[in-house]
Amino acid sequence: xxxxxxxxxxxxxxxxxxxxxxxxxxxxxxxxxxxxxxxxxxxxxxxxxxxxxxxxxxxxxxxxxxxxxxxxxxxxxxxxxxxxxxxxxxxxxxxxxxxxxxxxxxxxxxxxxxxxxxxxxxxxxxxxxxx
Length: 131
What we know:
- It is globular, with a radius of gyration of 17 Å.
- The chain has one domain (26-129).
- The protein has 4 helices and 3 strands.
- α1 packs parallel to α2.
- It has helices at 2-18, 43-61, 85-95, 123-130; strands at residues 29-36, 66-71, 98-101.
- It is of the alpha/beta class.
């Protein structure tokens, strides 16, 4: 698993280092990266991403006017919102430009079909349900 993460982030580092934009048109752009894993495990892997990998990615991306923001819902879902966890997670995925899935030995849960509003940003979910 660490090998896959290392390859992914090495590719991202390379992409950032190869991005050459003339200084006259540089504008800061944000890139949201949603981190997905089961909630009860993978804490150390998520901690490594948040404490080590993303600060380094931000440092390397800054000269190119890119700001990377990790979307980490471990701390963002309140007790009142836990019934809507699937909808909240899917909303954040829709708002993100990248998704990092951390896979391990645990399968997590298979939530019931989410009751999502009929909005265009959820069209990909309905397509997945048809397959």
